[in-house]
């Protein structure tokens, strides 16, 4: 009985330690409806986006336009798939949420793309 409890406790610790996340967690729960409400074309300014979502990776173009990229990755460590039983119960892939925003030279949202990507 003690061995079963010990194995269960170890499996629980490993499953918690096997998950990792990185990136901007501020927009982690942003939905398509939320993005549509927040990122209004020709009305939402850069400063509003920064205050709502935080800093992004920014690419500036000579034309004055900018692309801002927000990314959040939630992944399970690959070693978990080799642990008996636990490997079958957990996903070893990653879930990536990515938001790309194109700002015009006037500083307002031109268009955006929000996508959820699953990897193995």
Explain what the structure shows.
The chain is an alpha+beta fold. It has a single domain (20-77, 91-119), classed as Beta-lactamase Inhibitory Protein, Chain:B, domain 1 (2-Layer Sandwich). It is built from 4 helices and 5 strands. It has helices at residues 2-17, 32-38, 46-53, 86-89; strands spanning 19-23, 57-60, 66-76, 94-103, 109-119. Strands 1, 2, 3, 4 and 5 form a 5-stranded antiparallel β-sheet that branches. β4 (94-103) and β5 form a beta hairpin. The chain starts with a helix and ends with a strand. The model is unreliable at 13-18 (pLDDT under 50).
Overall helicity? 25-40%
CATH architecture: 2-Layer Sandwich
Count of domain modules: 1
Distance between the termini: 36 Å
The chain-level structural class is alpha+beta
Secondary structure tally: strands: 5
**Which percent band covers the strand fraction?**
25-35%
